[in-house]
Amino acid sequence: MAVCKNEIPILEFDTEQSAVIVPGHHSDYHFPRKAVMLFMEPEIDNFVAQNHCEIVGKFVSVTKGFYVYKTKINHVEIAFVQAPLGGAGAVQIMEQLIAGGVEEIIAAGCCGALVEDTEGSFFVPTAALRQEGTSYHYLPPSRELVLDAAPVKAICGVLEKEELSYKTCKTWTTDGFYRETKEMVQYRKSGR
Q: Quick check: 140 and 4 in contact, CB under 8 A?
């Protein structure tokens, strides 16, 4: 076992991959290779109502059930599911998708940005300032993560092809957005 011990528990990281509870332990789902996680419930409901979508799974949480749908777009099978707000809930669903065979996942919805624009604008994160607890279970401690360039380039390419304006940005993965102060926001924007 390679546990990186730290005085601050959130900064501890274990490279061991054999968890006590593993995703997929209570299901035998078989999902398509590609999936989309959306932080937009009404849009999912509208899409399902207007298109041929099959329910291929359901993840039950203490608050609600999250249906996994399957559809075909350009002859490619794609699973899609609502993602709950918050890293912990979203990652639980992501882990279940992977356990069911998903290999490529994209998430879309809302994000915190350190640049200003109007609500509803497209932002493509290129880095994430880590100030939440979930990501520290997946990667060693660091102040921020830089996203892989290839997916960022692909997403920007799709938006450009569709002639949709967007901004690249650093996102902020906070769990306590009601606890942020003006001074802390300025500090985050300064890049320190």
A: yes
